[in-house]
């Protein structure tokens, strides 16, 4: 081996040679600074990573060159404090390349001391972790999105539980208003239900901050009702505004409410402030799509809840209605009369009971058969229903025995009502197999809260006693007892 080659081999074997190889060929960026944190040298990896050469950064504090508008200020202060105390620090920090591109680095700043303990340099190493940070951010977004979905699922499950627990339509409306405002807080909403004639839909509930919704809408005013399926305005390239919408540029949903296969109403959800160019346009579509999915689920649950309430009301109605006449039955009368008597006693209001009995009813059954007897009972019931309102409840206690629960009726009002019913029943035309029957008549007795007692039992007993007196005195009359004497009304 020649002498000069042997000299080069000896140089290559020195620690300085290996250190130089590491500094020049490492994939991590390296900056060497003086004790005042002024840059002295950078390795090629630093230039490749940042675009800055040694001439660009020499004499400058590295952070002043690399940090930018979105760099965390607290992290920068931690680095400054550690360097001032001459201790090592390792942090993740956002830097910027010479071209302005942001990138994340795992930065380690280490103070260097000579053999005498004098601080001579800082060595900063930077490893690009942008890809790792992106994955972490994506994972965080996924975790956040999953947390939101879990929260939505829990709210939907809770909403479903409350919806199916509603015992009445009014209670159901209360749950719908609270649930929809919680599930879609950025939207206002309204619930419409078809009227009895099905010619229009009437507003039954609303929620949110809009001052008002239309009190009623026509079926042809809504694309959802015309097309027979839910409609979202504000998400499609081709779409048309429903005629019932007041602000044409506002995104909204229209969702039919269906019970037992029949469309019975419409849920209208409005996103005021989500117009094109509005304050929330940067997240408008994502929010609307998410809320569309939630709205579809809510519409389905509300539809099922409405069907459930209707079925429950139908079953309850059947259990409280007389099957033959459609009047309230004895069970309903006893439950409601007990409550109304107690409330009238508490508030000092009038209350009357009018007991009615079909005269010679057994004779009808024996002469013309039970079908004719049933027809008579139905006709009597129709007359009683015609006189009923919020203050008058007609009931059938059994057989040919009927009773009117009369709220806020004093003696004169009760007698007048009983007389109207008696006269109307006596004028009922009855024909069986072409044969005109003799007139149907009823006898009636009146009991009054206060005069005849304070309990339901006392008032019923008084009305029954008056009824017996009416029958004893010839039937087809109204009798009202008044103290030790009896008052008899007869035509």
Structural account:
- This is Sensor domain-containing diguanylate cyclase.
- Residues 349-483 form the GGDEF domain.
- The chain has helices spanning 3-12, 15-25, 44-50, 54-57, 62-66, 73-84, 130-165, 169-183, 223-227, 284-320, 330-347, 361-368, 370-386, 411-426, 456-472; strands at residues 29-33, 39-42, 89-96, 102-113, 119-128, 188-194, 201-207, 216-217, 231-233, 252-259, 262-270, 351-358, 392-398, 401-407, 431-432, 435-436, 442-448, 477-482, 485-490.
- The chain folds into 3 domains: 3-128, PAS domain (Beta-Lactamase, 2-Layer Sandwich), CATH 3.30.450; 135-318, GAF domain (Beta-Lactamase, 2-Layer Sandwich); 330-490, 2-Layer Sandwich (Alpha-Beta Plaits).
- Helix content is 44%, strand content 24%.
- With 491 residues, the protein is an alpha+beta fold.
- Helix 7 runs parallel beside helix 10 (284-320) and helix 8 runs antiparallel to helix 10.
- Strands 8-7-6-11-10-9 form a 6-stranded antiparallel beta sheet. Strands 13-14-12-17-18-19 form a 6-stranded mixed beta sheet, sandwiched between helices. It has a 5-stranded antiparallel beta sheet with strand order 2-1-5-4-3, with helices on both faces.
- Strand 15 and strand 16 form a beta hairpin.
- It is built from 15 helices and 19 strands.
């Amino acid at each position: 081996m020649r002498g000069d080659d042997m000299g080069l081999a000896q140089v290559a074997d020195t620690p300085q040679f290996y250190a130089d190889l590491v500094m020049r060929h490492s994939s991590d960026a390296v900056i060497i600074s003086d004790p005042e944190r002024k840059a002295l040298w950078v390795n090629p990896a630093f230039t490749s990573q940042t675009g800055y050469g040694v001439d660009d950064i020499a004499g400058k504090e590295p952070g002043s060159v690399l940090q930018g508008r979105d760099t965390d200020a607290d992290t920068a202060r931690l680095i400054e404090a550690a360097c001032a105390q001459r201790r090592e620090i390792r942090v993740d920090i956002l830097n910027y390349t010479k071209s302005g591109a942001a990138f994340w680095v795992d930065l380690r700043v280490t103070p260097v001391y000579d053999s005498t303990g004098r601080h001579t340099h800082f060595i900063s190493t930077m490893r690009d972790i942008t890809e790792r940070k992106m994955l972490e951010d994506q994972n965080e977004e996924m975790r956040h999105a999953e947390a939101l979905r879990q929260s939505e699922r829990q709210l939907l499950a809770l909403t479903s539980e409350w919806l199916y627990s509603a015992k009445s339509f009014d209670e159901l409306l209360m749950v719908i208003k609270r649930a929809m405002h919680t599930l879609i807080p950025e939207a206002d909403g309204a619930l419409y239900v078809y009227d009895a004639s099905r010619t229009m839909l009437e507003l039954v509930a609303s929620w949110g901050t809009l001052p008002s919704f239309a009190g009623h809408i026509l079926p042809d005013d809504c694309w959802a009702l015309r097309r027979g399926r839910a409609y979202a305005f504000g998400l499609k390239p081709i779409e048309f505004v429903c005629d019932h919408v007041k602000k044409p540029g506002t995104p909204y949903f229209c969702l039919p409410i269906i019970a037992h296969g029949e469309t019975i109403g419409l849920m209208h959800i409005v996103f005021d402030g989500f117009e094109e160019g509005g304050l929330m346009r940067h997240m408008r579509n994502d929010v609307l799509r998410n809320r569309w999915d939630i709205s579809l689920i809510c519409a389905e649950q509300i539809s099922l809840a409405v069907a459930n309430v209707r079925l429950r009301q139908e079953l309850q109605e059947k259990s409280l209605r007389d099957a033959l006449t459609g009047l309230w039955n004895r069970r309903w009368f006893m439950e409601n009369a007990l409550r109304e008597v107690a409330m009238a006693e508490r508030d000092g209001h009038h209350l009357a009971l009018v007991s009615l009995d079909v005269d010679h009813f057994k004779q009808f059954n024996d002469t013309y058969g039970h079908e004719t007897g049933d027809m008579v009972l139905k006709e009597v019931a129709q007359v009683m229903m015609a006189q009923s309102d919020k203050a008058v409840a007609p009931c059938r206690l059994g057989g040919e025995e009927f009773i009117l629960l009369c709220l806020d009726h004093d003696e004169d009002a009760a007698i007048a009502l009983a007389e109207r019913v008696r006269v109307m029943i006596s004028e009922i035309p009855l024909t069986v197999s072409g044969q005109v029957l003799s007139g149907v008549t009823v006898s009636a007795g009146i009991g009054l809260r206060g005069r005849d007692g304070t309990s339901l039992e006392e008032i019923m007993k008084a009305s029954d006693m008056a009824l017996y007196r009416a029958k004893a005195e010839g039937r087809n009359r109204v009798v009202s007892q008044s103290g030790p004497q009896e008052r008899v009304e007869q035509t």
